Amino acid sequence: MENCPDSSIQARPVISPFPFSEYAEEARSPQRTIPIATYLAVTLLACFYAFTFWVLTVAFGVDGSIAFATGENFESMIFEASGSYLGSWAAICIQVLIVTSFFACILAFHNAAARYMYSRAANGSCLRPWGASADATTPRRPPPSC
User: Fold this and answer.
1) 29, 19, 48, 40: which is closest to 108 by C-alpha?
2) Which of 52, 53, 135, 145 is least enclosed, having the fewest CB within 10 Å?
């Protein structure tokens, strides 16, 4: 990483699979809580993915799941399973949840980027004004305009 420009070093923790280190200054005991949060998040995601694949295997069978996943309409696999077992309303609900989860991902990414840039600026390794914080009642300066 010696030859990396500074911007790539700044972006690396934002896209890291373990972003909980950004919250170290807010934790009571970060050496204990950050690893717990990381392992818990990875474990819950692994359990959710395993449950999802188990449901699809039960819905289509092993051979049917492989055939559906390697076919041309593989992206509609979860909608087909939910539509045939739960009804068309479930497929519509899942589509809405997927669209709103895209918005949540974008929002979380920008939040993580802003928090990381704030912590970098507060430590002095980025622009100082990005690390300034106001008191709880009013901002010290107006937000930047477009």
Assistant:
1) 19
2) 145
How sure is the predictor about 134, in pLDDT bands with cuts at 50, 70 and 90?
A: low
Identify the pLDDT of residue 22.
62
pTM: 0.60
**What angle is formed at CA 101 by the lines to CA 99 and CA 105, rounded to 5 degrees?**
125
What whole-number distance in Å separates Cα of residue 48 and Cα of residue 68?
A: 21
- Across the chain, mean pLDDT equals 77
Q: How many Cβ atoms from other residues are within 10 Å of residue 70's Cβ? A: 8
d(CA 36, CA 38): 5
* Cβ neighbours around 109 below 10 Å, total: 13
Average pLDDT over residues 127-141: 63
Mean pLDDT to the nearest integer, 67-90: 86
CA dihedral 73, 78, 83, 85 (to 10 degrees): 130
Task: Assess contact for 94 and 77: CB atoms under 8 A.
Answer: no
